[in-house]
Amino acid sequence: MPAPSAPSFDAPPEGQPVVGPAGPIGMFIVLGIAATDDAAATVRDWCGQIGGFARSMRLRFPDSDVRCVVGFGADAWDRVFGPPRPAHLHTFEEIRAGDRHAPSTPGDILIHLRAGRADLVFDLASRLVTALGAAVVPIDEVHGFNSFDARSILGFVDGTENPQGDAADAAAFIGAEDAAFAGGSYVFVQKYLHRMDAWNALSIAEQEKVFGRTKIDDIEMDDAVKPANSHIALNVITDDAGEELAIVRANLPFGQPSRGEYGTYFIGYARDPAITLRMLSNMFIGDPPGNYDRLLDFSDAVTGTLFFVPSADLLEALAEREPNIDGSQAQAAAAAAGSAAASEACDDRPQGAAATIAAASLRRGDDGSLAIGALKAEAAALLPPAGTALPR
């Protein structure tokens, strides 16, 4: 009598390590893909190497909690991998309201690293970037650190309301609503610079009103006394049923004291980027309009880019993915034009994005700091010029 066969089942895709506690040292690298003939193929090959680099580091230093997350922008996805594209991956549109500005800045690849030791973060970053070689150009690199008991440069605890456990997974990872990309996540990054002289001129009581939380013991203010324009009041959002909608933040402070640079690198992972964009709308436009986040009186966003983080399984499989030349040629040309336009000054862009975000619904249908504002001149020269049909 033959032995019974083991039951078959489809294991859920393994997500990249975007949730859970992480080491105190972080690095955020944003790269552009060069306009060379073999750049796209090099990036695809690199996708199959990333997991090995990270696993090797974790095996050698098991107590350092080395984490590596990689994501791709909309233009890069179209050029390197072709359709289909993740359902909600798009180029972030800037938000302007009064003198407040959330810029949209270029970025094809995001590398987000965390570990317990700075040398391990640096070594892994070096290996990852070296493997890409001339296929990429640098756009931004920020070295972050955990400050005291997870406090921002402004002195308040950051990430207190982050979901934990299963709730974090539910907030960060795509599910059956976009089955081809299940286990993936959308990540939005912004680099904020803070005006510390003005901030430090406030009393602690006034600073607490800006955040909506006590500074020393990290207790949220009662709704009866919490200002409507406080940071917390505008970042707690709910769906039509009154259920809170969450994202998973992994922010870190950074700075260069000798240059007077003090900042926060915001990085938020979400199952649906519309949640993050609604938070941004509340902050910059206001809810209702005009009731904007008072933290912006002391902080300036200087970057803003949306990326898709594939599951660990898909990331490795992308190494073998050949874009559909016929189906993605038009998308590739559009991506090339978009990359070039994004690297230029955007002061003359239309302001329609603000209204679009403010009016956007989070409900889906049944089917579903600064020395870096733009690329350096030599980097910009390597990016695809507008209207160029990209080699496949």
How many DSSP helices?
A: 12
- Give Rg in angstroms: 21 Å
Number of strands: 14
Sheet/helix structural class: alpha+beta
Question: H/E order of the elements?
Answer: EHEHEEEHEHEHHHEEEEEHEEHHHH
Query: How would you characterize the largest beta sheet?
Result: 6 strands, antiparallel
Cα(first) to Cα(last) distance is 55 Å
Which strand-content bin applies to the residues? 15-25%
Global shape: globular
Sum this structure up briefly.
With about 400 residues, the protein is of the alpha+beta class. The chain has helices at about 40-60, 75-80, 120-130, 165-170, 195-200, 205-210, 230-235, 275-285, 310-315, 325-340, 350-360, 375-380; strands at about 25-35, 65-70, 95, 100, 110-115, 135-145, 185-195, 235-240, 245, 250, 250-255, 260-270, 300, 305-310. A hairpin with a 4-residue loop joins strand 11 (about 250-255) and strand 12.
Describe the structure.
Strands 7, 10, 11, 12, 13 and 14 form a six-stranded antiparallel β-sheet that branches. The chain has a four-stranded antiparallel β-sheet with strand order 2-5-1-6. A two-stranded antiparallel ribbon has the order 3-4. The longest helix has 22 residues, at about 40-60. Helix 2 (about 75-80) packs antiparallel against helix 10. The protein starts with about 25 loop residues before the first strand and ends in a 10-residue tail after the last helix. The protein has twelve helices and 14 strands. It is globular. With about 400 residues, it is an alpha+beta fold.
